[in-house]
Amino acid sequence: MATAPAPEMLLDHRGNPRATVTMPLAYEQSRLGLAFHEAGHAVLSMAYGMHVLTSEVMTWSRGADGWGVTGKTASEAHGTNPWQYAAYCAAGEIAHVQYLLTSGLWTQERALACEADHDREQAIDVLADFGYRLSHGCVPEGGKSWGMVQGMARRKIGLLWREIPTVAHAMDERTLLTGDEIADLTALANTPLLGGAA
Q1: What mean pLDDT, rounded, does the chain reach?
Q2: 118-127, pLDDT tens digit by residue?
Q3: Could you give the CA distance from residue 84 to residue 22 in angstroms, rounded to a whole number?
Q4: Are the beta carbons of 132 and 142 closer than 8 angstroms?
Q5: In angstroms, what CA-CA distances link 76 with 36, 54, 103, 137?
Q6: Beta strands of the chain (E only): which ranges?
Q7: CB-side neighbour CA atoms (13 Å) of 36
Q8: Is there a contact between 150 and 117 (Cβ–Cβ < 8 Å)?
Q9: How far apart are the C-alpha atoms of 174 and 155, rounded to whole Å?
Q10: Residue 100: CB atoms within 10 Å
């Protein structure tokens, strides 16, 4: 395990500390679960035509408190359909829960610990900036609920489930994958960056 990531890596898009939760699993299972979370983001991002820069899982020692784990996927989303962007945001949590289900690790407590409020709030804020209404807990007039977006992500993850574990296991082994490495692993296209090559 490495040292803790830079403090800004533990902040949400608003600059606030991300919520921390206890995942009642062994270290290796928790790390792999976060790799599935990031693989969900990366694979859906690529499937929706975004350019993926990197996707990584990070773990570090917290001394007597055990260890911490987080991840990050960096994508270029210009020109992406707003609802597909929202589904990309939801994909991490959905892939993480699917990992628990397929590994025989699912419990209600563990599934609740997969909740990624920071991803949901980022989707709500980004879509609002472009005039789209996304809400948690209700369907706003002319918009969608977070549950509807999770359904979109769940369907897409079902279609791409072969690719997501492939990326997750490679990420768990290597820690960081570039978008081009993910494209090689999945046979998905990593759309070129707008304005030039990556």
Answers
A1: 91
A2: 999 999 999 9
A3: 30
A4: no
A5: 20, 10, 31, 28
A6: 51-61, 67-76, 134-135, 144-145, 176-178
A7: 23
A8: no
A9: 28
A10: 20
8's tokens:
């800004």
Tokens of 3: 């040292």
Which residues, at least 6 apart from 80, have a Cβ–Cβ distance to it below 8 Å?
A: 48, 49, 50, 88
CA separation for the pair 115, 196 (Å, rounded): 36
Residue entry with tokens 């892939």: 95
How do residues 12-56 score in pLDDT, each as one tens digit? 787 887 777 777 889 899 999 999 999 999 999 999 999 999 999
Looking at the DSSP assignment, which residues form a beta bridge with residue 92? none
CA distances from 160 to 24, 30, 59, 108, 155 (A): 27, 22, 26, 24, 9
N-to-C CA span, the chain = 30
What is d(CA 45, CA 39) in angstroms, rounded to the nearest whole number? 10
